[in-house]
Design a protein that fits this description.
The protein has helices spanning 9-20, 42-52, 69-73, 79-88, 122-131, 151-158, 197-203, 258-274, 291-302; strands at 3-5, 25-27, 34-38, 61-63, 74-76, 93-99, 113-117, 135-137, 164-166, 178-181, 188-191, 210-211, 234-238, 250-253, 279-283. The chain is α/β, with parallel strands linked by helices and 305 residues long. The strands form two sheets. Strands 1, 2, 3, 4, 5, 6, 7, 8, 9, 10, 11 and 12 form a twelve-stranded mixed β-sheet that branches. The structure holds threonylcarbamoyladenylate (TXA) and magnesium ion (MG).
Amino acid sequence: MSRIIPGNAIGVVETVEALRHGLIVGLPTETVYGLAADLANDDAISKVFSVKGRPSSHPLIVHIARHEQLFDLAESVTTACTTLVAHAWPGPLTVVVRARSNVSRVVTGGQDTVAVRLPGHQLAQDVITGLGRPVAAPSANRFGRVSPTSAQHVLDDLGTDVTVILDGGNCLVGVESTIVDCTTAQPEILRHGSVTVDMIRDLLADIDVTLADTPSGTTRASGMLARHYAPKARLVLHENAADLPGDSAVVLRCDGDAVETARHLFERLRELDRAGVDTAHVVLPPAAGLGVAIRDRLFKAAAHL
Ligand code: TXA
Ligand code: MG
């Protein structure tokens, strides 16, 4: 059975000890909680896949605590990649780079590329520093469900399978990191997050940035599969509040402040399930800035296959 442990120095030591013993832990980050394993322990990493119910071909993100650790993992780093991480790390940006041969192919799902992120949460950095190695971690939810943004969410989802959940409070960003494929000279945005397309294009002024297509779940990042963020409730999406049905419909306004909306989005979707709501009407934010990532999660949550 899981235990939520306080996010203090003792909690960090306990979490590091659990990782050293090959256990998988709930780890707070500024985006969503991760389900973390010691990068040097393939058995523990395999357990992450089985607990999540995630196909072994869907790679995990390697989390580091210092910029230099990128070079222990990457075979090569492009100029664009260097610029992006210099500005966005620590923070909600994941870069996909060519992997060195010593990087576990269990983590990369058999691919020769690896996704790397330096999270902006002090506790995550302290755990990775204490372990002395990176950790591999996807979001700490079962495959296909909404990502957890509090320690309690992790307990609710994975309580029977995770021994330790380090309590880092509610996640400040609330949606998963932006993923940029930096394996070629022309970076490609694979998943939208709070590091926005405009920010990336501004940083890489001279370099063309492309956006991955998302044709019916065939893209390389699993977060892009249709219905990846599914609550049980059926979501009906509206561009304008004026289109909402009247009377007693359950309404989720997502067109207010985008930072606040992102921060509470997954908690609100979970609330719908807890309240046993079967249909909720959602007002979408405009497709600009962080609104792009929020819309992306809502479209997936609303998709019925
Ligand atoms: O904010 C986040 O990114 C959170 C926190 C815990 O860091 N993690 C997260 O991981 O959202 P998750 O569950 O989305 O899984 C990792 C994502 C998947 O979409 C996966 O396909 C993509 O990263 N990914 C990992 N390695 C990749 C690679 N080599 N090439 C392309 N995509 C990759
Ligand atoms: Mg996920």
